[in-house]
Amino acid sequence: MREWWIHVGLICIPLVAVYLHIPPPQLSPALHKWHSAGEVFHFRGREIFYRDSYGALGSSDVVILLHGFPTSSYDWNKIWDPLTQRFHRVIALDFLGFGFSDKPRPHRYSIFEQASVVEALVAHLGLSNQRVNLVSHDYGDTVALELLYRSDQNRTGRLTFNSLCLSNGGLFPETHYPRLLQTLLKDSSFLAPILTRLTNYMIFQKGIGDVFGPYTQPTDTEFWDMWTGIRYKDGNLVLDSILQYINQRLKHRERWVGALTSTFVPLHMIYGPLDPVNPHPQFIRLYQQLVQRSTVTILDEHISHYPQLEDPTGFLNAYFNFIHSF
């Protein structure tokens, strides 16, 4: 019996070793097109990917899009062209550690640093004196709140808000329910390095599929594009470091929720109510109670955590109605 286990071990060890060094998937034609249309700038020696499209003539309006965890700027691909028909410039970036940007490790990722990345991009594009509209999702919502705090509270910000539209972000720790794998990765210094290497496409697909509605699931190609963005530059190996943002939200709740509740910047929330991470009605009730200056759009009951992908038309209609209201 002992010899049998030895043989199994001898077979499994090289198989596991091969698996752990499996190369990342190739870019799909759509993802390759997105990448080719972008550029990079340097932030503290790191490459940050961004897209900057010029659109509507006769408009000076600028919109900057901030994506969520664990995906990338490609989350905005379904609403990109309609936005270029309304705005003079449409800009999106991959945060440090995401998508096509650099993914340094070891590295202490933080919401504060990501906000500085956005400010650096704004300066790089010559928009420091331009009022900009921000649209954010999930992780990007918290980055937006740090930018709002810098602009409103301590006046050190290098971004001037015209408006802010949030969507399905875990703004309030008390109504935020991270997935089991997220909790394990952010809190287990022992397990995290193992889990990041063992997480594969099937585990990812199951996890990300759980935060989409049953009728709005990504296609196989869309799942692969998300996974490809994570695996690019070994991004799966930094997920545990990035996930410290959940702990940062708790630690800095007063700073970020305070910025949200006290601002006079026009605010809107687009919310997919089937979201298991920020569940209905607890999340939206607390948001409406605390952020009384904000308007809210609750999308159809089958829309979940990724409203811009699950219901791009509904998302755009809600956003354009907001933009035209002030």
Automatic annotation (TrEMBL):
<protein>
    <submittedName>
        <fullName>Mesoderm specific transcript</fullName>
    </submittedName>
</protein>
<keyword id="KW-1133">Transmembrane helix</keyword>
<dbReference type="InterPro" id="IPR050266">
    <property type="entry name" value="AB_hydrolase_sf"/>
</dbReference>
<keyword id="KW-0256">Endoplasmic reticulum</keyword>
<dbReference type="Pfam" id="PF00561">
    <property type="entry name" value="Abhydrolase_1"/>
</dbReference>
<feature type="transmembrane region" description="Helical">
    <location>
        <begin position="5"/>
        <end position="22"/>
    </location>
</feature>
<feature type="domain" description="AB hydrolase-1">
    <location>
        <begin position="62"/>
        <end position="312"/>
    </location>
</feature>
<dbReference type="InterPro" id="IPR000073">
    <property type="entry name" value="AB_hydrolase_1"/>
</dbReference>
<keyword id="KW-0378">Hydrolase</keyword>
<dbReference type="GO" id="GO:0047372">
    <property type="term" value="F:monoacylglycerol lipase activity"/>
</dbReference>
<comment type="similarity">
    <text>Belongs to the AB hydrolase superfamily.</text>
</comment>
<keyword id="KW-0812">Transmembrane</keyword>
<dbReference type="InterPro" id="IPR000639">
    <property type="entry name" value="Epox_hydrolase-like"/>
</dbReference>
<dbReference type="InterPro" id="IPR029058">
    <property type="entry name" value="AB_hydrolase_fold"/>
</dbReference>
<dbReference type="GO" id="GO:0046464">
    <property type="term" value="P:acylglycerol catabolic process"/>
</dbReference>
<dbReference type="GO" id="GO:0005789">
    <property type="term" value="C:endoplasmic reticulum membrane"/>
</dbReference>
<keyword id="KW-0472">Membrane</keyword>
